[in-house]
């Protein structure tokens, strides 16, 4: 049973995040140290340098030969359910759109496995729970973060190519080429996919986890240790991952008219996806695979962890619903402790 000391350990891991957020907020709002273009530069530093090294560092320390493949399969099924649901909504609903589909996937799929998940699962289920949430973080970095990057790059490529296609308003041209106007406005899917593929391949976030996993496979197979020079070169940047991400959220908050720049309706929408839809789909996926006992409980609770810091970093970089993701990270992290403890208590009673 989780005790007050365990809850304190989780809170003590979360408070430093808000110290970094407060410093970011104060540096713009009170001390006027950074301008908007400076804030964008700091976020790009985090997105393309610190975060990839953070992911690579953490992944390289995991033993991939001791992973639970049933747990991985359950996670894959839950994400498939989410994607099918979002696709149906986007194509069948009047309010459905590609941009909101991407944001909804981020809200329901990416969680804070390292900062909140590791200490919480350790307190609830010991080393067993900690190992499973670490496996979840690897899967998230290797597959779902890359998939989200692909969706974001696809949206950016469409916007850029639409801007490059300038409609010709000449009466003569309209008369001659009116039939082909729609085709000239919208580039083919193959060209867009090629551009997106090249951009994703050049993004260091795409291959950071792959390099870390490759090293883990080699290191644990032949009992190798990473050279000190290489390890130090990675760690010196990766240690700043969570702190800089929260600092960037503070910068973003300071640049807005309101601290929480998101409506109550959208805030509740994000909370429902994060704390209800995500664990519900994970429960379905786990039951389909046949997970029972503690592994089922850990699977459900880790799916209800608060929003991943990386989701805000990507939203800020690509300019897609930044206000929704920032609110999801800030407010979701605050309310996550009572929500997760409630999940733990209910699942314990159902044992």
Automatic annotation (TrEMBL):
One of its GO terms (molecular function) is auxin efflux transmembrane transporter activity. Keywords: Auxin signaling pathway, Membrane, Transmembrane, Transmembrane helix, Transport. The chain crosses the membrane at residues 7-28, 71-90, 102-120, 132-152, 234-254, 266-289, 295-315, 322-346. GO terms for biological process: auxin polar transport; auxin-activated signaling pathway. It is a multi-pass membrane protein. InterPro entries: Auxin_eff_plant, Auxin_Efflux_Carrier, Mem_transp_PIN-like. GO terms for cellular component: endoplasmic reticulum; plasma membrane. Pfam families: Mem_trans. It comes from the Eukaryota. Its main location: membrane. Coiled coil: none annotated. It is found in: Membrane. May act as a component of the auxin efflux carrier. Belongs to the auxin efflux carrier (TC 2.A.69.1) family. NCBIfam families: 2a69. This is Auxin efflux carrier component.
């Amino acid at each position: 049973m989780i005790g007050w000391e365990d809850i304190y350990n989780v809170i003590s891991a979360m408070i430093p995040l808000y110290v970094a957020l407060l410093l970011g907020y104060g540096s713009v709002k009170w001390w006027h140290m950074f301008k908007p273009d400076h804030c964008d530069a700091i976020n790009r530093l985090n997105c393309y340098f610190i975060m990839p090294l953070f992911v690579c560092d953490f992944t390289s320390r995991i033993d991939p030969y001791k992973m639970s493949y049933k747990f991985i399969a359950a996670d894959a099924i839950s994400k498939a359910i989410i994607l099918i649901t979002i696709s149906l909504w986007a194509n069948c609903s009047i309010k459905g759109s590609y941009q909101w589909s991407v944001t909804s996937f981020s809200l329901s799929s990416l969680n804070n496995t390292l900062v909140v998940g590791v200490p919480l699962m350790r307190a609830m289920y010991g080393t067993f729970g900690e190992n499973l949430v670490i496996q979840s973080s690897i899967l998230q970095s290797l597959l779902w973060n890359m998939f989200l990057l692909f969706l974001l790059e696809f949206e950016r490529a469409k916007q850029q190519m639409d801007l490059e296609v300038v409609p010709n308003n000449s009466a003569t041209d309209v008369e001659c080429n009116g039939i082909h106007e729609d085709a000239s406005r919208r580039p083919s899917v193959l060209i867009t996919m090629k551009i997106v593929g090249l951009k994703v391949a050049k993004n260091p976030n795409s291959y950071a986890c792959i390099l870390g996993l490759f090293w883990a496979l080699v290191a644990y197979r032949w009992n190798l240790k990473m050279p000190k020079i290489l390890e130090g070169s990675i760690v010196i940047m990766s240690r700043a991952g969570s702190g800089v991400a929260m600092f960037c959220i503070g910068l973003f908050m300071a640049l807005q008219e309101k601290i929480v720049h998101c409506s109550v309706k959208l805030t509740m929408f994000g909370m429902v996806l994060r704390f209800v839809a995500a664990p519900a789909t994970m429960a379905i996926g786990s039951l389909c695979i046949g997970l029972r006992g503690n592994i089922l409980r850990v699977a459900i609770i880790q799916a209800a962890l608060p929003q991943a810091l990386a989701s805000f970093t990507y939203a800020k970089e690509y300019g897609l619903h930044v206000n929704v993701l920032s609110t999801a990270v800030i407010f979701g992290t605050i309310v996550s402790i009572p929500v997760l403890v409630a999940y733990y208590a209910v699942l314990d009673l159902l044992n």
